[in-house]
Amino acid sequence: MSAGQSREVAVGGVRLHVEEHGSGTPVLLIHGWPDSGYLWRHQIPFLAGHGFRVIVPDMRGLGRSDRPPEVADYALAKVIGDVAAVLDAAGVEAAHVVGHDWGAAVAWFTAMFLPDRVMRLAVLSVGHPRAPRTMRQNEMAWYQLLFQFEGIAEATIQFNDWAWLREFSRGDGDLKRYIADLSRPGALTASLNWYRANLAPRMPGSPRQLPPVTMPVLGIWSTGDHYLDGERMEKSGACVDGPWRYEVIPGASHWIPLDAPDRLNELLLDWLR
User: Does the residue 61 lie in any domain?
Assistant: First the structure.
């Protein structure tokens, strides 16, 4: 990763670690679970070398950022506030936004509720929250129910030297780093609180109306994703009022930035330019 500068951004008592690299058009890279800004190590020098100012936070509860104690601290409404605070601290009015996994969910909601702050959007793996949820997606998301059981989930994931996480990840992603990060006091619970705050079981009913997504959106899915269904990402185009483009990366696991860095960089450069 190229040498950059780091800062601490305070939002409502929560301290966020943020790195910046390069100069030019701002682009915000938002990671998901259980990553940190380190996920983007192949994208940062590439984008910085092509005229972008790359802003990379560790999201609350993860990486080097604070781990607030309450489940409600991880609600997407608060995380959107983090995005605004990170941009404010950088002196940036609007940026391109790229998100993966939970970071993609944050990117979608930022685009809907803070549209003036987002120029172009690129979302990896996670489709629009209103896109039809397929039965295949329900089957793939079984682990999200486990994560709701406080204490039980933590014990299950850590048991026998993190055997569950090793099997669940199938060796993909930054497994050793995840185990080291999640082994810190309170870190595993903080990370699972993203699921508890935003995916708690709800009574069926029509989803509440969400504002439109008006800026151009690039949706990217990978055929080796064991957790998210590509059909849901593909159908997200119907939820976008602005220009929509859908790309599939064959063979890559859920962790597209690590498995297909060259293809992802090519797509991002083409899209964000």
Answer: yes
For residue 107, give its domain range.
5-135+210-272
Q: pLDDT, tens digit, for every residue of 32-48?
A: 999 999 999 999 999 99
Q: Does the residue 144 lie in any domain?
A: no
- Are the CB atoms for 54 and 20 separated by under 8 Å? yes
Q: What is the CATH number of the domain that holds 18?
A: 3.40.50.1820
How many domains are contained in the chain? 1
pLDDT in the model for residue 200:
64
Both tokens assigned to 66: 């604070």
Residue 176 inside a domain? The answer is no
Q: 0.90 cut: is pTM over it?
A: yes
Q: Does 163 map to a domain?
A: no
